[in-house]
User: What shape does this take?
Amino acid sequence: MSYVFTPPVQVSVPVVGLAERFPVHRIYCVGRNYVDHALEMGGTGREAPFFFMKPADAVLVAEPGSTVAMPYPTLTSNLHHEIELVVAIGIGGSHIKAADAAKHIYGYAVGLDMTRRDLQNEMKKHGRPWSIGKGFDHSAPIGAITPAAQVFGIDSAAIHLQVNGQDRQRSNIAKLIWNVAETIEQLSAAWALQPGDLIFTGTPEGVGAVVRGDTLAGAIDGLQGIQVRME
Ligand code: MN
Assistant: This one.
């Protein structure tokens, strides 16, 4: 096979304990999946799940033990952090039942669904797509993936984010409106999931703005934490 130009490099995420990396296929995101975040965004708190996407090359890898620089994006003056549990799919499928979802999961990671909130709000107001608010370059910082077999109690793990050492978001995965298995059931009814898909499962309350020079530290108990510096 030859191409008219050099194809892009495969986007990948490190895996805890392995030299081999996880090749990224697609990035799916769940909207408003914690009651108190849905309320802070003006929702009713509990609604059917909905999904949006980021391009695979929006991934910004936070390598274990180091701080990754995220360029402050263009066109915004209200860049928000959203700490999220990320599910990495290892075995694809369509119409996966929640009861069977676990076998499709390769592992879990800590991610940030970085959001140009001003642009997202503008698009919402006009009923337009969220892509410009959600799917921009470097909008998906993510830490190393821990294989599922090494993760215990993720369904009730603490999730939190500090900015410059101050707590901004603190909750628990148990507060997901649609849990991981239910999310996989709903998502796989709409798209055929593939190995390499990442699912950002939604953020708890406490989202807010960051500016150049801020350092974000995100963590979920049992997973590799991430550190991001805004540049
Ligand atoms: Mn989000």
